[in-house]
Amino acid sequence: MIENKQQRKRKRGSSVGIHDEKQVKTKGLNEIITSLALLEDQEKNDLDELNKAHQDEKVQFEENHNKKTRAMVDYYSKVQDYHKDAEIAQVTKKRKVKLNAFSASAIAIGAASVELDSVSNDKINEKATSAGPQRRLWVKNRSKDWWDQCSSPDFPEEEFKKAFRMGKNTFELICNELSSAVSKENTMLRDAVPVRQRVAVCIWRLATGEPLRLVSKKFGLGISTCHKLVLEVCSAIRNVLMPKYLRWPDEETLSSIKDDFESISGIPNVVGSMYTTHIPIIAPKISVAAYFNRRHTERNQKTSYSITVQGVVDPRGVFTDVCIGYPGSMPDDQVLEKSTLFQRANSGFYEGVWIVGGIGYPLMDCVLVPYTHQHLTWTQHAFNEKIGEIQRVAKESFARLKGRWGCLQKRTEVKLQDLPVVLGACCVLHNICELNNEDLDPELKFELIDDEMVPEVGLRSADAMKARDTIAHNLLHHNHAGTSFFT
């Protein structure tokens, strides 16, 4: 019994202890939860205060920015008003100066009129007529003596031809053809440059290749005016004269051309001789490598840049087709492939006829070229000689082109984008001179040097190969071949 009582006491004591322990733990958890809630509320309050502070800073920043903007606008407005007032003051000052000058002139004129009161009206009118219109103050006084001499009927024909590479009659023909395209009307400010002087400026510039400052001195015009006139007249030549003087021949003319070329070489159905030359230019700002002429650079030991001119000529050396403006790094066969002539050839336009080219061109259905392999037979060598005679017509024509127009011999001031128009004008003027039998002065003879490279694919038509062999065979057996092979 005593033990049972003791056990019951122990059990009650342990249960009381457990209960007390639970109460302590519960109280601790409540305190922790309360602390966390307080921390959360504190953090929320801190965030609210921070956001409010940021908002206040933003509002203050915007207010400061608006103040600065208004201040800058006010300052800029004041500066504009200041400059405007200064301009008005300057204009007013100039007007006062001019007014004083005119007043002084009027006083002087009035005094002179009083002194001349005794002179009769007829004499006054005569003097006024002889004096002519007064020169305006802003026009620069330039001498036109040289051009006045050249345009005089008494100016020697030989001197005129030496200056303009053509006689007076040919020059007048060009002026009449271009009159409607280049003539300008007089304005209130100045008189327009006459048509003859406009054409003369352009032709003299092309003929001599002299800098614009020298052209300006010769013709008594401004440098910029001369530059503008050259481009305007060249454009008029392209638009007005090129369709008339540089075109593919009609059927009747082609028949005559075939006969003339056959009389030269014995080769039938030749309608043109083709050649490609290079025109030196200043290194362009874009695509420099494309215009670099490696062969000219190596030969002359001087860096050279150029553009190409491909042309087909008739037996007289008159151009019937030109392709102008491709970069100087391109060989002759690539220039041909990009030309309109090549496109027409592919469409069958030249079917049944030949255009003769040098070793730089490929053998095609319409392009006849010499044999280029080694160890030629007698027949092949004789054929090459005859092809060379036809090719010489084109080469000599290009030599006269460059000799007649000195601007083609050296790097020019003309911009790259304007060069095709200028070069086209030179070709048209060359044709006009050739058609009018304008002989070239021997002193202007130009030695033409253009490196020709054999194309990578030189034979592009099996039919053309057979036709060339047949022509070579007929030349030999019809006694048209030369005998220099043995000498």
UniProtKB/TrEMBL annotation:
Q: What is its main location?
A: nucleus
Q: Where does the UniProt annotation locate this protein? A: Nucleus
**UniProt keyword Nucleus, yes or no:** yes
Q: Which family does it belong to?
A: Belongs to the HARBI1 family.
Q: Which domain of life is it from?
A: Eukaryota
Q: GO CC annotation: what is one?
A: nucleus
Q: Name one GO molecular function term.
A: nuclease activity
Identify the cofactor(s): a divalent metal cation
Keywords, comma-separated and alphabetical: Hydrolase, Metal-binding, Nuclease, Nucleus
Q: Which organism is it from?
A: Penstemon smallii
Matching entries from PANTHER family are given as: OS05G0593000 PROTEIN, PTHR22930
List the InterPro entries. Answer: HARBI1-like, HARBI1_dom
Q: Locate the DDE Tnp4 domain: which residues?
A: 275-431
Residue numbers spanned by region Disordered: 1-21
Official protein name in the record:
DDE Tnp4 domain-containing protein
